[in-house]
Amino acid sequence: MNFEKPEAPVNTSQTRSEPSRRFSVAPMMDWTDRHCRFFLRLLSKNSLLYTEMVTTGALLNGDHERFLRHNEAEHPLALQLGGSVPLDLAACARMAQEHGYDEVNLNVGCPSDRVQNNMIGACLMGHPQLVADCVKAMRDAVSIPVTVKHRIGINGRDSYAELCDFVGTVRDAGCTSFTVHARIAILEGLSPKENRDIPPLRYDVAAQLKADFPELEIVLNGGIKTMEACHEHLQTFDGVMLGREAYHNPYLLAEVDQQLFGSNAPVISRAEALAQLRPYIAEHLQAGGAMHHITRHVLGLGTGFPGARKFRQLLSVDIHKATDPLALLDQAGELLQGR
What positions are marked as the site Interacts with tRNA (predicted)? Predict the structure, then answer.
């Protein structure tokens, strides 16, 4: 299997069914790149994976082939877009479909100053009709699902009535699936990291939204860290989305297929996952890439067992000095034996 060569753009929207959003891994800037997604797919075949947010400007004015590149093994896979110009988003949604993505998602949740200045992310919650116009333009352009990820509000527009107005307006444009980060976003004075921690989680607000819009698919995001929590939230919501926990403790995904999708396949071990990643790493090295491009995403695989510190050291510190990086990978793999 050729891991590094990008797939030729193919419109597969007519052959792929709509992806299940029962369990997904959140789009995370600088984290959920194609190497991370390939690794996570080894742990779970059914989880829906998202790209990092890609802006419309990057796709329309930059090297869109590089931004859209992915391995066929990553599916089911969604592209998250950042933007607020309907025609631009429609053009980028078409690119997503042509490159075989299973879904295109509009970011209405990122609180950073940088994206606010370009009318991207959470600030769009203050402009529900504009979001609706964007969604309609994207839906008119493609046949794959168009979804929205948003907060429960922003400072100055954080009442439940305003949240319902936002969701209802976007629903009327044809969106039927909303991923709700159950915190408001504070658009001034807090960093993106602080916006993930300081505003309190309000699962009750998200649950009320599901009750008031029962016809919509509502996926819960924010603060979910265990399979037990996933099971609990799935009593109320149509799906759960994990963010940082899925990255820092990726082996949690090894239980997803059996526990949430009813798979009878055996749970992959940590050692098996690293062994299956090895050919992908080898091909990346042969293509001139650096091993840490991939192994930085694997460090959390050692979470929770004796020897985890040594495992992380091998793949984060020693890797930069190794003359034979694959031998170092094998050494790290030995620490996972029986795990």
Answer: 107, 193, 196, 309, 312
